[in-house]
Design brief:
By secondary structure, the protein is of the alpha/beta class. The chain has a single domain, classed as Aldolase class I (TIM Barrel), CATH 3.20.20.70. 34% of the residues lie in helices and 16% in strands. The protein is built from nine helices and eleven strands. It has an eight-stranded parallel barrel, surrounded by seven helices. Strands 8-9 form a two-stranded antiparallel sheet. α7 links the parallel β6 and β7. α2 packs parallel to α3 and α4 packs parallel to α5. The termini are far apart.
């Protein structure tokens, strides 16, 4: 069983003063793949002295089409997340979409993530805060970094100081996202750790097929820029074979490309020191 997890002890584990990583598959899609990813990424992070949180959605609620993959069953997926945390002695994060999900997911994971579309849902933020878990709030594609102060306030005023914010781009048209790196600095002024969601910021949503597209060839560019402007953490969805992933494969990083990217990013952060 892993040790008790708090935001302060997680941040203090960054003894090399680099950045932390949230990474994993978009969704828990079977029994085997999440463990394979967790094992690989855990080793990379240990080798490069990077604190690591495993990411996996136990349920995908925001889907374009009715026949899109949503999950393998809530309890089954949540148990896999808990087992990954215990097996590799790492914290885990998953999304929640409704008030009743907060207490359910909190029994299995260390961090509750609020999806970008839901970042203004007051009842959801309060429910997440009251679990006592760390709350990672993704910035809405329709908001500025400054506007996220109100989401932070909702969590803190509900008695929970453990807040993370995640930048994931802004939508200026119907089918693309643009990253304004000023948002990272704006959110850091709110005195909470700020994460750059590399892969979701490269999505191309609202495609005519109902399947989201992406630009994974730009993952390195967005990651390098995020480190250069001072992001505290990075969020990367990764999969051994993105083409076979059941959710968001079009913008994922292929798993065997993660280590070369991390090596490059560590060098950039070291140079900036």
């Amino acid at each position: 069983m892993k040790a008790s997890f708090t935001l302060s002890n997680f941040l203090e584990s960054n003894t090399a003063n680099r950045f932390f990583l949230m990474a994993g598959p978009c969704a828990i899609e079977n029994d085997e793949t999440p463990f394979l990813i967790a094992e690989k990424v855990s080793k990379i992070c240990k080798d490069y002295q990077i604190p690591y949180i495993f990411k996996g959605s136990y349920r995908k609620a925001n889907r374009s089409r009715l026949d899109s993959f949503t999950g393998i069953g809530d309890e089954k997926a949540l148990k896999i997340l808990r087992n990954i945390g215990n097996t590799f002695d790492i914290p885990v994060v998953t999304d929640i979409h409704a008030v009743e999900e907060a207490s359910l997911a909190a029994e299995y994971v260390d961090v509750l993530q609020i999806p970008a579309f839901l970042c203004r849902q007051t009842d959801l933020l309060i429910a997440a805060a009251k679990t006592g878990k760390i709350v990672n709030i993704k910035k809405g594609q329709f908001l500025s970094g400054d506007a996220m102060r109100f989401a932070v306030d909702k969590v803190k005023q509900s008695g929970n100081e453990q807040v993370l914010l995640t930048e994931r781009g802004n939508m200026y048209g119907y089918q693309d996202l643009v990253v304004d790196f000023r948002n990272i600095q704006s959110m850091k002024q709110l005195e909470v750790p700020v994460i750059m969601d590399i892969t979701h910021s490269l999505q191309q949503p609202n495609q005519a097929t109902g399947v989201t597209g992406g630009k994974p060839e730009l993952i390195g560019l967005i990651a390098r820029a995020a480190i250069a402007v001072g992001a505290d953490g990075l969020f990367i969805e990764t999969h051994p074979n993105p083409a076979e992933a059941k959710s968001d494969g079009a913008n994922m990083l292929q798993l065997d490309k993660l280590e070369p990217l991390i090596e490059q990013l560590v060098k950039i952060r070291e140079a900036l020191k």
